[in-house]
Amino acid sequence: MSHDHDHDNELDPFAARVRALETILTRKGLIDPAAIDVIVDTYETKIGPRNGARVVAKAWSDPAFAAWLKRDATAAIESLSYTGRQGEHMQAVFNTGDTHNLVVCTLCSCHPWSVLGLPPVWYKAPPYRSRAVIDPRGVLEEFGLVLPAGTKIRVWDSTAELRYLVVPMRPEGTEGWSEERLSELVSRDAMIGTALASHPA
Amino acid sequence: MNGPQDLGGQMGFGPVAPERDEPYFHAEWERRALGVTLCAGGMGAWNIDESRHARESLHPADYYGSSYYQIWIKALEILLKRHGFVSERDLGAGEAIDPAAKPKRVLKAENVPAVLAKGGPCDRPVETAPRFKAGDSVRTKNFNPTGHTRLPRYARDKQGTIEAVRDGFVFPDSNAHGQGENPQWVYTVVFDGTEIWGEGADPTLVVSIDAWESYLESA
Description:
Chain B: This is Nitrile hydratase subunit beta. Chain B: Its EC number is 4.2.1.84. The complex is a heterodimer of chains A (201) and B (219). Chain A is an alpha/beta fold. Chain A is 44% helix and 11% strand. Chain A is built from eleven helices and four strands. The mean pLDDT of chain B is 97.
């Protein structure tokens, strides 16, 4: 798949096409270019996987919160103020010793923006979207994750407006850790299901 | 529609290539593409289902040959033309030449935080009681609609089990085509990997989809 590493360049035809479109819409008074700046700043600096990591760390630390997250993820996550676009209808799914959860959107790129931020390129690209549902073990191995042969894999295809957050298992050796410290063990990939939580160094 | 977007189970795309410490954007124009798309959507002329359908309606060769934000922009141009905001002449010249339809609203910078925080919930009340309950055995329909649908091909005509009754949600198959929200109950339906993929399937695999009620029949 094309994986665009071009840098901003007047000669790049697609960059020129987007710039022209922005100019046309701005001249017609249909968009506010300053609004674009705010949107980009929001998703580049404010909303990202640290939100989700704090949700997971709280679920690890607080059984009542974990139960709430399991029952009504939208409300539980809203209590931490992580709300909004592409997080309107949340569902948390918990890894166990028996079952590993993996999230995909085979039809487009549905992703819980409010807790994980914008999705990475691989999540939106055909190799992952095509194979996560038929060969999840092979996909996980490409992320360096080899699950025991007996571990069941549950793949959640986000075909409707529910957005899934994987709650990985809490690593051993983290007893007594603060939520802040625990959250550093939780990567975006662990909350999609293509990784586990990190072990304490 | 059986379009290029319906990727589950397709083969030949090669390995997943995760990028270490991937940035959110790989070029400045991708930032603008995200922002322009969200701002244009903010005019309120189309809904998310129509916009998804515009993307999947790109020719397969174009869809597979385009990066993610390229797909967004190509579909956005189609939506803007369809709704009278830009013309072929505007796009050809790269300038605002023809008059535009009047938008319902324009998203201003000061309103962006509130609009993003609110999002676009699409749960809706449904008058009837849910037809299925958790534990029910169901079969997905076998259909091949030419319009938008959210039932992937790999999950058609398959036997599964209702795991959870969710909320009533806007029905994308009609909403994408200006035919109303027609909310229906949505269910999480689980399938054994062997039911979906048959011979050679991973015996430890379970796949679920979220399915609108009209996609399902009792089994």
